[in-house]
Structures are given as C-alpha cells and as structure tokens.
Amino acid sequence: MQLDRQDIVLLSIIQRDASQSVGELADTVGMSKSACWRRLQKLESQGVIKQRVALLDANALNLSLTVYISVRTNQHNDEWAATFQRATELIPGVLEVYRMSGDLDYLIKAVVADMPDYDRLYKQLIKADIYDVSSSFVMETLKHTTCLPL
C-alpha cells in the first residue's frame, strides 16, 4: 500500500491520540473535514487502521505484574494448536500470543495483579497440555509504545 504525506501525517496523529475529531485532524493536516473523513474511511477499509481504542493503565487497574511466558510443545499438529489458541483466548490477562521460530514455540504476554493471580493464569494455561513453560517477569519498563514508525 502506498501512503502519501497526508496519510502519514494523519496516521502519526491518530496513533498518538485517536480521540481528536475529524475537524481537528483536518485542520492539523490542512484539508477539508469531508476529505479527511473520506481518507480515514479509506485507511480503515484497506485495513491500515485496524481499530480505535483507549489504552488503559494496567497499574491503575491493579494489574501491575507483566509476565512473558515461553511455551514449548511436543505436539505440532493443527488440533493441538487450535486447542491452545482457544485456551489462551479464554484466559483473562493474556494480551498477546505469538507462534515463534527458534527454541520456543509460543510467546505469551500477560498482565496479572500478583503472584497468586499469575498462579491462577498458569493453572489455566497448562490445561492445554503444554510440554514446557518458562516465565519471565517484567521488573522495569524502559520503553513502551503503540506507535509504529511511519
């Protein structure tokens, strides 16, 4: 997909703050409201803009412990993968799940309130018949952004 300068400016603005009105965006980019609205609709229909959300503060919601969970399986088949995917979709606190290359099979990012809460998550996760699980807990966040480089 080819993006022009106005697309890039629009995307840069809304990935930092999607709460701005179309009028505010149009003024910033230097186009009419209707042209700005059409451009945003086009970017959404093409899948460039996936969704507009509010980012919440995990600490303010008592979810102060972030954990990365490395998973290895000895069952490399479609049935197990589907079961594992369903299991992770149903576990509150699981934010991201990736199938990986290299030494581990899956990497999970989750947020929990504390260690007992992590233990509850772990007990739900191992119901998916996992071969090996290893967890690393975030001690300090040095950088966190949702903004993609444009």
Radius of gyration: 20 Å
Average pLDDT for all residues = 95
Major sheet: order of its strands? 2-3-1-4
The secondary structure category is alpha+beta
Between the first and last Cα atoms, what is the distance in angstroms? Answer: 13 Å
Question: Can you tell me the CATH architecture of the largest domain?
Answer: 2-Layer Sandwich
**How would the global form be characterised?**
elongated
Q: Roughly what percent helix?
A: 25-40%
User: How many domains?
Assistant: 2
> What's the assembly state of these chains?
single chain
What's the tally of helices?
Answer: 5
CATH-wise, what's the superfamily of the largest domain?
Answer: Lrp/AsnC effector binding domain/regulation of amino acid metabolism (RAM) domain
Summarize the SSE layout with pairings.
Blueprint: H1 5-16, H2 22-29, H3 33-45, E1 65-72, H4 78-90, E2 94-99, E3 106-112, H5 115-125, E4 132-137
Antiparallel strand pairs: 1-3, 1-4, 2-3
Q: How would you describe this structure to a colleague?
A:
The protein is α+β, with helices and mostly antiparallel strands and 150 residues long. The chain is 38% helix and 18% strand. The chain has helices spanning 5-16, 22-29, 33-45, 78-90, 115-125; strands at residues 65-72, 94-99, 106-112, 132-137. The chain has a four-stranded antiparallel sheet with strand order 2-3-1-4. α2 (22-29) packs across α3 (33-45). The two termini are 13 Å apart. The mean pLDDT is 95.
